[in-house]
């Protein structure tokens, strides 16, 4: 077997997989088709480019599953997490980054690694040697066809929408104000990381009417509108009920309007800082498939954004993923061609962090196999283990859909109170148990034994 590992796709998962395998001493060739072959959603040729939000979501590693995943990745030497912390922006309790410097730094680190060679080319067929496919939601048509031909199954797809970005100096701060929900954050900067635009009941009702009436992007022939619930376009949420947005991304809780502190807003639109300079803000939770002209007119109905200029309007793209519970073994290998592993969003995980985490694991598993070692199974009690177990057998194949990491994927902790009242203690028990199990697994990984089948 060749000792060189080929990785197709230089997004979050591919970049992380390359870093992990290379640090284990394995020569890696990382194939990235951009910028030679572009996509509508990417703007640069940088590796690990953040296409949608600039947030890695909650950084709370004691009460939040994605924050726990941050912790586990950092303890495993993650290039994505370490670089994210180096380019962190104020975002309350979330981990948000300055997207372009972040991607440029990841690219520079990978280019400088002596075990990594980066090749700018599109791969259109399944390779014969050791390979990780981490092509993400925008897998090229030729490679997607090759995967479909090999698996004998139609590709599954949903639509992932991109939220718009506003120039900060065009936001009317005589109407809007700076505050993180519930004043989260240890510093004043963190506690003021979001800009909030308040709505009266009349404002909200008019906004909902406009959303429902706006021109939408049409689907191409043969596509179906199967959305991932964690990334629903706002107009789809509005179609589910007039109050849906007010209880979702536009909920008015945990905020006090300093311009009118005695009046509680009926709804609030939040904008999150998108770059270190503070010149760009993205509209939180406002993924959309409205046409560009409609977006401009509808979003300017938001109090405080009536004179807004947009650095980027929203968009929508097809997100391809495989039926991993059917196709992959517990080592993330394609059952029909075990020289090939899959990692990232194409496996049916959702989100930057989850994608990078599956890249981290795939890189380590591939490196161990090439070195003739057998790694112990990742404990399901960890965030990493819960996620990989879900996609490689824990999920129901017939109804398999993209999934964020969440405590519902973890084995229960015996003796803890169920329901909302016991949630804080329960989540802390989950994270304490996970940290101990992950630390122990990393120690056992370092002591991995050569497999009996090693040459």
Describe the overall structure:
- By secondary structure, the protein is of the alpha+beta class.
- The protein has two domains: 5-155 and 322-450, FAD/NAD(P)-binding domain (3-Layer(bba) Sandwich), CATH 3.50.50; 161-318, Elongation Factor Tu (Ef-tu), domain 3, CATH 2.40.30.260.
- It is built from 13 helices and 19 strands.
- It has helices spanning 12-23, 65-75, 79-86, 99-112, 141-151, 188-191, 201-213, 234-239, 292-299, 324-327, 352-370, 383-394, 423-446; strands at 5-8, 28-31, 55-58, 88-89, 94-97, 116-119, 131-133, 156-162, 165-167, 177-178, 194-199, 267-273, 280-283, 310-312, 315-321, 333-334, 337-342, 373-374, 449-450.
- The protein has a six-stranded mixed sheet with strand order 6-2-1-7-17-16. Strands 10-11-12-13-9-14 form a six-stranded antiparallel sheet. A three-stranded antiparallel sheet has the order 3-5-4.
- Strand 1, helix 1 and strand 2 (28-31) form a beta-alpha-beta unit.
- Helix 1 (12-23) runs parallel beside helix 11 (352-370), helix 2 packs parallel to helix 11 (352-370) and helix 2 runs parallel beside helix 13 (423-446).
- Its cofactor is FAD.
- Its EC number is 2.1.1.74.
- This is Methylenetetrahydrofolate--tRNA-(uracil-5-)-methyltransferase TrmFO.
- Belongs to the MnmG family. TrmFO subfamily.
The overall strand count is: 19
N-to-C span: 9 Å
Oligomer category = single chain
- The proportion of strand residues reads 15-25%
Instruction: Report helical residue fraction.
Output: 25-40%
Mean pLDDT: 90
Largest sheet geometry: 6 strands, mixed
Shape estimate? globular
Number of helices: 13
Give the uncertain stretches in residue-range form.
none
Keywords: Cytoplasm, FAD, Flavoprotein, Methyltransferase, NAD, NADP, Transferase, tRNA processing
Family: Belongs to the MnmG family. TrmFO subfamily.
GO molecular function: flavin adenine dinucleotide binding; tRNA (uracil(54)-C5)-methyltransferase activity, 5,10-methylenetetrahydrofolate-dependent
Protein name: Methylenetetrahydrofolate--tRNA-(uracil-5-)-methyltransferase TrmFO
